[in-house]
Design goal:
The protein is α/β, with parallel strands linked by helices and about 260 residues long. Helices cover about 15% and strands about 30% of the residues. α2 links the parallel β10 and β11. The radius of gyration is 18 Å and the shape is globular. One of its GO terms (biological process) is box C/D sno(s)RNA 3'-end processing.
Amino acid sequence: MAIPFSGRGGSGGGFRGGRDGGRGRGRGAFSGGRGRGSAMKRDGGRGGGRGGGRGGGRGRGRGGMKGGSKVVVEPHRHEGVFIAKGKEDALVTKNLVPGDSVYNEKRISVQNEDGTKVEYRVWNPFRSKLAAAILGGVDEIWIKPGARVLYLGAASGTTVSHVSDLIGPTGVVYAVEFSNRSGRDLVNMAKKRTNVIPIIEDARHPAKYRMLVGIVDVIFSDVAQPDQARILALNASYFLKAEGHFVISIKVGFFGYREGK
């Protein structure tokens, strides 16, 4: 699955562009692919971005979104993702480490009908391409509870932390990042999240970390390099299971367009 993004990016759904949000909505189709030898598919890019999925209960609680206003949390159609409905709707994930914020994101504490409390973290689509794709109506992300994920281009771990929430304690995310500076933040985040395995290495050379990564269900690639498709394919040849899937984020400039041509 490819996620084309322009530099201005942004997405609809309960978030409005503030100072750090940027204007405009990213365009482009979403395409899907399977691992090892199967052809890339094209999916319809529209539809279903906001919907709450079936099943699951509703929770009501206070805090997090707008100064103590009541919030209802409903499951999104993508398993492991939720929508917090209050004065403003927001995409959220269930916090794997209650009480902890990774990048100063808002947290919402919700009391269920049985009296138990659950904490959710707001997933900002202006800081995460995967969140923007979900709100934009992407058909499938293949990242779900219990999944084994290889994340290429993990940066400081903003999106990785939400993938950690999404897959839960039974899943694992191998987070590869080349930059030592971003890698330090990634490692610090992983100290509290036992399902995150940080790997500070160049994704162009998967042989260097082949002993650290097991066979995975899905690869998410956000390396922002002109040869990122080759990088993903190389990693897939090492780690992606047969009939596995991938999601790739592609900047518009990498499609080969040139001004005046």
